[in-house]
Each structure stands twice: as structure tokens, then as C-alpha cells.
Input
Amino acid sequence: SAVISQKPSRDICQRGTSLTIQCQVDSQVTMMFWYRQQPGQSLTLIATANQGSEATYESGFVIDKFPISRPNLTFSTLTVSNMSPEDSSIYLCSERLTQETQYFGPGTRLLVL
Amino acid sequence: EDQVTQSPEALRLQEGESSSLNCSYTVSGLRGLFWYRQDPGKGPEFLFTLYSAGEEKEKERLKATLTKKESFLHITAPKPEDSATYLCAVQASSGGSNYKLTFGKGTLLTVNP
Output
């Protein structure tokens, strides 16, 4: 299995500010992802974090709102920019270790006031 | 558009009372169907990946099966520690991100002692 850590585990932020979430994995992986889990909703893919190039965003998500960095094969960050209460959610980092297995981190619980 | 529907939304069982959770899916070519367990305040924990109709996988009291339209997660003689939300996700073989998982909303399982 994989060990994935995220920082912070939770935060309460003010409207209009930005928060950067860090994700560290314990082995070098090609595929890392960022998902969002809103209350009562399904987990939704935000973007694929590509090492050495820009992230690939899913429909409905844009780089200006969710900039992503992937400086190496074990680390990625997601920034939630210019936050509003609608951004209150759980943000999850994920890695595809093999074709058969995909693991998730513990999540970052964000509340925007 | 890929869709995943899980039923029931919630299920209460007595300890030892076996049952099944359902995951119905619509996808443009199935590359894989994933099952996860999620405990409150934690990230999803990987359980199984199924690839083709007729495939079955087992882990302790859990057995996952797959048909062309749905997957079942059978829980045999459950214990209170099996209480969790069980998530189903599909990976399509065409369109969008090659590794995107589309999730259902989950089934909240409660096993009473």
C-alpha cells in the first residue's frame, strides 16, 4: 500500500484568502491527482498533477482558481484561491501506484467563512 | 457522461446479518471498477479493482462481483467494525483523463452489535 500525507489536515479561512494544501507520498509515482469531496456529493476529480508540466484540469475547474504544482515525483500542492464559502469541502490527494491500485490521502477539511 | 449510482444510500444491519450493496454504472467502455471504504474523517481506503464481467475478488468478509451494468459488494456476517461508507468508482477507457475515477455518492453501512 501507499503512505500519503497532507498538510494541513483542516483549516478555517476567511472569504477572499487563499490556502495551499501540501501532499507528500512515500514513493515516486507518475500519476498524482487532486479530488474534492463536497458535503453530500461524490468525490470529484479537480485535476491531474503532472511532474514537470502544467496540470490537466477537468471540466469546471480552472488553473486560476486551483493552481497546482508538482516539483518532483513525491510532492504536489493545490492552492484554493480567492476562497468563498462554496469552496468549503474536503480536498484529497491521490496517487495511482499501479494500474490496479489508486490510493487517497487523509484529506484536508476546509471551512470558508 | 459516465455515471455511477449506489444503493441503498444507507443500510443498517445487525451483527452477523449478511447483505449486499449495489453499484450501477454507465460508462463508455469500462477500464476498471474500484471499491473503497471511507471512515468518518478519513480518506478513502482502497479495497478492490474489478475489470471484466464475471470477475470476483474477496477480502475478509467482503466479496465484490462485476457484471456489464453493475457491481455488488457482498458483506458476509458483518461486524460492527465494518461500519463505514462504501464508495464505488469507475474508470472509463475513453474520453477525458485516462485515469479519472467517477464516483458514486456511497452507501453508509451501520452494523449494530
